[in-house]
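Let's do one together. I've listed all components of the complex below, 484 residues spread over two lines.
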Amino acid sequence: MKKLIELKVNGEEYEIAADVNRTLLEVLREELGFTGSKEACDLGACGACTVLMDGRPVLSCLTLAIEAQGKDILTIEGLAKEGELHPLQKSFVDHGAIQCGFCTPGMIMTGKALLDRNLSPTEDEIREAISGNLCRCTGYVKIIEAVKVTAEQQT
Amino acid sequence: MRLPSFYYLSPKSISEACSMLKEYNKNAKVIAGGTDLLVSMKQRVKTPNYLIGLKGISDLNYIRQNGKDVKIGILTLISDLEQSNVIKEHFPVLADAVKCLGSPHLRGMGTIGGNICLDTRCCYYNQSKFFRKSVGLCLKFGGDVCHVLKKGKKCFAISQADTVPALIALDAKVKIQSTDKEKVIPVKDLYYDDGKDYMKLKNDELITEVQIPAPASNSGGSYMKLRIRKSIDFALSAAAVTLSLKDGLCEEARVVLGSVGSAPIRVVKAEEAMKGKKLTNDVIEEAANFAYKDAKPVANIVDVPPSYRKEMARVMTKRAVKEALSRVK
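Okay, and this is what the predicted structure of the assembly comes out as:
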């Protein structure tokens, strides 16, 4: 069953005809070309597909595209402004918080949601916030550092 | 993994949703947060023809305080409960349960209603279609074997919802609406002790609200959950405890175990063992022994033997009682 779905992604409006059984992740990647959000477990256990919906981190693999209508969706592609990386992205690069890079978009989106609501999170709060994002290179120490330093720079 | 195809229905009211449930009967499933249902659908554990999305119904997402009683709309997000000062202040057992449910992402998507209706789980059931076919269809899937207990005639899939033991310990009730009537029943009466047919909801019934009575004065509560990782995972063994004190003695107590049976297990003997007594280590130990006896885990979680989960039911109970005691106010 195809339906006309209107999505607002990174500030732009899109209208596509998609089957109602498509997830937001599938539509973002396959219909709209936003391949930054990754598909890994596809069962809600790894966080690689994390995008922000009205500012909250959600798993796009477990979100029906049709239920994402009317929401403000932000993907990793929407962070850089005019070719300039977002401070959190820069911090991830500077701290080597990226190994294979597969978990990075999810980690950064989750980190951004945290910093948007908490200007100076403690290390425990950072660990708790990213506890739904798995990094199989186990590069957690540098990821936490990158988020912490961004927070310190912001304040 | 793609989702199987389905028709998506978007009712605008509860009565419309109930009519749809009645019309499509077992071919329809209600979707709220979708964090459990969509996983099952991707694994082809469930393949409903119709999905009834509740998100279009207004006013199902609220936490209302009426005196000290609290009413929670069924679409209230777990993360909203986690951040609610009312819940933190007056219902610590529920605050504990929502805090350790899934991961932050899942809590920001999943609803209280979804958790109450969470399907029972088993390592032979919550698997890909390929896996299930290779081992043979089990009782829960409509087959004739149980891979956990070889001669089992009944399904032993377990109830792993975190909020349910906490709600039962709080004597919470749910409001259920159907096409022609409305009723309020205790949360503990929602479940059958049967892994396959685990919920007493009729086809056209929809839970719309959770009602939690005011806590007694001098009361405290705690939920202790054992899991492999501190995030994401379901409980291996869990205990929810609420208790109230009068003149230093235990006046009222609730002990409810999770993840060690097909339904949450209320351990009445443990409650009786504490009532009217000062909660010394010996009394707590005795109560925890009853929890150990009542816990009935079977071998349906990979790599975690049931004997360990049974023993940990005792430990979780002890820790929950002690924590609840320290929180009495």
